[in-house]
Amino acid sequence: MQNATLVLKDGTTLLGESFGAPLDREGEVVFNTGMMGYPESFTDPSYRGQILVLTYPLVGNYGVPGECKDLENLSKRFESNALHIKGLIVSEYSENHSHWEAKKSLADWLKKHEIPAITGIDTRALTQKLRQHGTMLGKIQTSAQNPDDNTNSKTFLDPNKTNLVAEVSIKEPKLYKRGPKKIICVDTGIKLNILRNFLDRDITVLRTPWDYDFIEAGEDFDGIFLSNGPGDPAMLEPLHKIVRKALKLKKPIFGICMGNQILALAAGAKTYKLKFGHRAQNQPCQDIDPDSPTHKHCYVTSQNHGFAIKDSTLPKDWITWLKNLNDDTNEGIKHKTLPYFSCQFHPEATPGPLDTEHFFDKFIDML
Questions:
Q1: Same domain, yes or no, for 103 and 41?
Q2: DSSP-assigned states of every residue in 109-139
């Protein structure tokens, strides 16, 4: 292995060894505390533009599965058709892998998709730094140049200033035909298992680009789903306007992750950037709505986001429905009287627990 360096915006340099593609990449350095599920995580569009630090000490020991698709040509093992991370940082990479579904090593997979990766970094110390100071811009360097020549903050690319959603959203509307009930699925970087959850429930889905005005186009539908996705939701003003028009129709609306934030912004609330985000498969959340039949129920949830809703800015007809028990941040909202609700976490998991998979049924019952 050749040497590789992680350079942070504050000037910190960490030396390790390269096991991915021998390329230099830059992005926002974030951490995930999950124990497994890296094939699903790396292909999650919400990680677009980010250098991912995994805190679990050993990575790569079960390799990477082969491609397997369902009848709708949706991957069963990955959450999209591409890797979206800009780079990977691990404590120890396992050069030997073993799993009955494995078709290649993690290193070979990363090289194929031109993703640089570093092993030999104290990822837990790095995570402590990111928790203390917040996520930082960073750069993976695998070339021979002196890392001290590239610590000027002006040389670092901030992916959150780019419309990342436009990069990962579907380009043309696509219809997945099932039963009589039909929803509009606004694709801001949707994970494939979300689509599968609707199709498995016999729902016809029209998957649309993030800025497609389905109301202006005269589309017929019974409900609207707002998907997950990368970057700053405040940048998506065209989508805010579309959802504002949709709110006037009083048809059911359900949002996940970025969809939670988009629904809030369309309603008139504001969002903000979290210090270090939520990226894990074990984030505890609680239903705090006293009128909810599941009031005080706690859920273990899978999460991947760096922005959140500012509770105090919610209009009077909206309530905070779910809270994160680690930091008391917003994890979901709903309208007091109309069929609009959303959650900040991922009920479909992949990876993670299925505690809240019934949210799909909750939405479908409204249609």
A1: yes
A2: HHHHTT--EEES--HHHHHHHHHHH--EEEE
